[in-house]
Structures are given as C-alpha cells and as structure tokens.
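Entry 12.
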Amino acid sequence: MLVSVSENDDYAFRVFYDLYYRSVFRFAYYFLRNREACGEVVSNVFVAVWKSRVALRRIENIDAYLYVVARNEANRYLKESRTRRRCLSFEEIPISLIDRNFPPPHSEDAPDSRLIEAEVEELVRRLINDLPERCRTVFLLNRQEGLSSREIAEALSLSESTVRVQIKIAVDRIVAGIRTHYPDLKLVSLLLFLFTARF
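Predicted 3D structure (tokens):
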C-alpha cells in the first residue's frame, strides 16, 4: 500500500488515511487534549505525508514515522497557539476500560463484580490522568497503542531506558493508588491488569 501511495495512487492514500486516522488522532490527543486542535493537527499530518509520499517506500516502521510527524505537528500547533495566546481546553481522555479490560462477571457474584469493576475503572482513569504528562503519554502509548519501548522512544525522541523508567513509574503509582483504595485486591491481579490491559 505504501508503494502505491508513493506512486500517487489516490485510492491507496484514502485507504491509508482510513487505516491510520484513529491512531494518529489518539496520539495527537496525548499532546493537545483538545479534539478540535487534534482534527487540525491530524489533517496537517496527512497533508505532510502526501507531500512527502515519494519517501514512503523507504519507511520501515510506518507507525513510528506517523507518530514522529504527529508529534512535530502537535508541537508546532502548541507553539503557534502560545503565540496567539490561545487557551487550550482540557477534556477527559476517552478511554474505555470495562469492555476491553475486564472479563465478564460470573453469574454468582455479578452485581458486586460489576460494581467493583466500575469503581476500579474510574479510579484507574483518575490515576492515569494524574500522572505527569510525559509519564502518562508513554504509559498510554505502551498500554493503549501497544507500542514497544523502542517505538515510543523513537516517536518521542527519548532513550529506551527513559521510556522503561516512565512505564515503571506509571505502573508503580497506579498500583499504589489502587492498593490505597482497595487494599484487599491481590497485587498479582493488579499487575496482571496493568501489564495486559490496553487502555
């Protein structure tokens, strides 16, 4: 598909756009926290990709490439918005935890199970949002987007060791926060949740 896009195939580019739009939008949202701004930035990302489409055939990791372009466009947007003294609104990150991260409750304890799941979901949302910005971004890219430490490091211009440290900090803080509110939950269950979930 990338070769076709690089050869000016409009249809291939539309397929490419549809395939990657959501992930690029989510990535931009980690920086901007504003849907309208993300829409503008994502449009700029795909315009930039189209303008440099000839180079696509040489791209080995298209996900990392798009994240780098999105990061640069988001940073440029933020810089310009500061110049215009525009205040960005902060919205809640749209993360759905229940459907993808909690197994169906057993019939014998369904009411209690659903209640605990909903409470833990909301708590995890708050704990993630309370993480420092870079830590939160790295954690979500790893857990929600499924990027490896190397891919995150490349996308955010960080070292792999820094990425791993940030993930560990995030996990430690979230586990500590959950244990504070739910001391009876087993640590093994918490770690399994954090290391297998895709937020």
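Annotation: Residues 26 and 48 are 18 Å apart (CA to CA). The two ends are 29 Å apart (CA to CA).
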